[in-house]
Design brief:
The structure is a single chain. By secondary structure, the chain is mainly α. It contains 16 helices and no strands. Helix 3 crosses helix 5, helix 9 crosses helix 12 and helix 14 crosses helix 15.
């Protein structure tokens, strides 16, 4: 009997869209209630450090992870921070919201079993990209540069949803990348009709997180297409490419084809190729500490 050939979403005329894909998995990747509440409180003018501390402290696991992060050498505070309220006071509400989102998202996605992606490499790439993004943002004097760490950390989460919801198509993407000189997002668009960047953007939108974060994820492969938040998008685009180059130089088992930097990103940030080497030197020790601090214990990262 002749084996029936599977029809990809792209071949169905985009019958399946990125938003449909995310909507279908939203229960599985829903953020904890504490994270949602903290995000809502950030829009309330009367919110205090004490208010945020009380809400976060209801989740003992999240509290432990946040205190571990703020007491790490990634921040380098001279004395130990023992309460969430103190952490909010020291690092600020905006940064804490980012850390709450990052810690919650990582914990949420760690529950999704995946035998398609190399999860060790996935999270190492993500954390390194976050560190590089924040360093580049500091060079550009971007306000609240910690936002870029979170965006870099989460820039590829769309891949996890693709692998979970469309495992057969995701395997096809991996196989095609081995034989053709294409970039992953191009192959995803060809096979599925959309790519991981679009899926990641839709997830952030459904989570009702800041629009700047949505844009950074959605357009990190195509920064010229973003009609807003151009600086954030350009920085994540640069950080992703620079991270890929660093991995290739270290002979890490990564994608064969690394996207070149779009000129728009250099123009928007005012940076150039000379920034890469010093940024990578600075990123090394920060990456190791961030990796140990932010990822869940017991995971082989």
């Amino acid at each position: 009997m002749e084996k029936k050939q599977s029809i990809t979403p792209a071949q169905q005329g985009r019958a399946l869209k990125a938003v449909d894909l995310v909507s279908g998995v939203v229960r599985l990747v829903s953020l904890p209630e504490v994270c949602i509440r903290v995000n809502e409180m950030m829009d309330e003018a009367s919110t205090s450090a004490s208010d945020i501390g009380k809400v976060i402290s209801q989740d003992t696991g999240l509290t432990a992870r946040l205190l571990k992060i703020v007491n790490s050498s990634f921040y380098g505070f001279p004395s130990k921070i023992e309460t969430v309220t103190r952490a909010v006071t020291v690092i600020g509400l905006r940064e804490l919201r980012g850390l709450v989102l990052a810690a919650s998202a990582i914990e949420t996605f760690s529950k999704i079993p995946n035998d398609i992606l190399n999860m060790v490499q996935f999270w190492r790439h993500s954390v390194y990209c976050g560190v590089v993004a924040q360093l580049l943002a500091d060079r550009c004097h971007v306000l609240h540069s910690e936002r870029l760490f979170v965006a870099g950390l989460l820039h590829d989460i769309g891949k996890l949803i693709l692998c979970h919801r469309l495992p057969s198509e995701s395997r096809m993407v991996m196989e095609k990348l081995q034989s053709e000189q294409l970039f992953d997002y191009q192959v995803e668009q060809d096979i599925m009709g959309f790519d991981h960047a679009e899926v990641g953007g839709e997830l952030i939108k459904i989570w009702q997180m800041p629009a700047s974060l949505e844009y950074a994820l959605r357009y990190h492969h195509n920064p010229a297409a973003a009609d807003d938040y151009a600086m954030e998008v350009a920085l994540i685009h640069l950080a992703n490419v620079i991270t890929g180059r660093a991995e290739q130089e270290l002979d890490v088992d990564v994608e064969l084809n690394i996207q070149p930097v779009e000129q728009m990103a250099w123009d928007m940030t005012g940076l150039d190729e000379s920034v890469i080497e010093p940024t990578l030197k600075q990123a090394g020790p920060l990456f190791i500490d961030a990796l140990e601090s932010i990822l869940p214990r017991g995971r082989p990262y």
